[in-house]
Specification:
With 101 residues, the protein is mostly helical. It contains three helices and no strands. Helix 1 packs antiparallel against helix 2. The longest helix is centred in the C-terminal third of the chain and has 44 residues.
Length: 101
Amino acid sequence: MLYTVILLSKNTKFFGGKVIALLVTIIVGVLFLVITWTPIGIISSQIMVRVSDGNPEDERSLWWTGWFGAILILVAIIIAALILPFVIPYCVFRQISKNLP
């Protein structure tokens, strides 16, 4: 994936390829985050359902934990999607562009 981004940035004339490389990195990064965080969200919601089964008081006191976890995961995904595409390609491009002909 990284090599593809580098090739895109070297072979395109559109703003030096940085825009296309940035878009590819954002798309792949968001897909990676969705793939990795979705099972975690499903598992945590199942744990919440199992803990709250049987006792109405537990169910009422625990309903917000699922939303709180979902909001935290969403915030983490947004922050990562905003920061990682700028940090990682910049460091990698600087390092690898020195080595590529």
